[in-house]
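Methods: example folding runs. The two proteins below were folded one after another, and each record is reproduced exactly as written to the output file, sequence line first and structure-token line second.
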Amino acid sequence: MDHFQSPLTREALEYWRSQCQGQAIPRADDYLDRLPPHLAPNLILFDCLPDDMLVRFHGSALITRRGENHTGKSWFSVNSHLPPSAVLADVWAIIRHPCGLWTEATFITSIQRSLRVEAVSLPLAVREGRPPRIVNCSVGLDTMQYDERATGWQGTINLGWVNAGFGVPETEPMR
């Protein structure tokens, strides 16, 4: 699947691919150590737990979009609209396959506008004993006005697996 609308989202995928260096997926420390600085504001890094996702890093553009920093918080505690079982099924498919997940969704903003967002989620290898990780690059497709914030979830418009070099799962994503 290749429906990327944002050059930044596509670049995040290409950067991820460039860091594999003969491995199935890039190591989290290598990925972050070499990260082009202009990608960091749009990234969110998760520790993936059996029943939750812990935000390890929340980029500044995403903090501005949402109006708060979620670093160190449970993803589901700050996103009560998300169905944990469906999200975690997709997350574990990303990690186990490995593959990516492309999503286009909309949020309602503080001035009651719809804000379209495109994201790609990709797995990262970790050292033994650490929880699996995924990195998500999320880019607003619509320009926000000064002091406008994403205040609520409207829904997923489209989503699909991204072939990261190893094919994609046979089942459709659940979200």
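Second run, written to the same file directly after the first:
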Amino acid sequence: MKLSDILTRAAAIIGLEGFSVTEESSALTKLCDCANTIYSELVLEHIPLKNKEAVEFSGGKALYSDFTYRVREILCVRAYGAKIPFVMYPTYVEAGDFSGTGEVEYLFHLGTLAPDDDVILPPQFTEYVMAIGVASEYYYRLGYIEEAEFYKARFDNAVGNLTRRLKSFRLPPRRFV
């Protein structure tokens, strides 16, 4: 799903006439800012984005600039199938004296998205869910609090339903007396 799809859907919900994601306008800038705010909120609070990749360690260190995405938190470092203890520093991760290629599992965030960028979310999140969040933020920034609350309630309800983990339960056996 592309950010432009979400913006187009949000513009339709809001009722912006003549909105286009291909030409620069103040409405496009506002909607992009709103979408980035909602996306950041969603990723930081509800759906942590996780990646696993092979990274080259030299002298026990791997720079964060060598990673594909911007690192938020390192979860695990593995080499030859075994976990390696590590320490996170502001610009690099240190894994003892290990040198070579290690597999690093980490949480990341994408930063600011442009209209042509792909939005990385689990498959259950549709552009409609994101669009109602964008509409909520848009109305809030314009000062339309009632409309903002309406769409925020819908967005929060949808996110809650999509991220909820259902607990399995077991029915105890019953006997007839």
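Comment on the second run: Helices lie at 3-14, 26-45, 127-142, 145-163.
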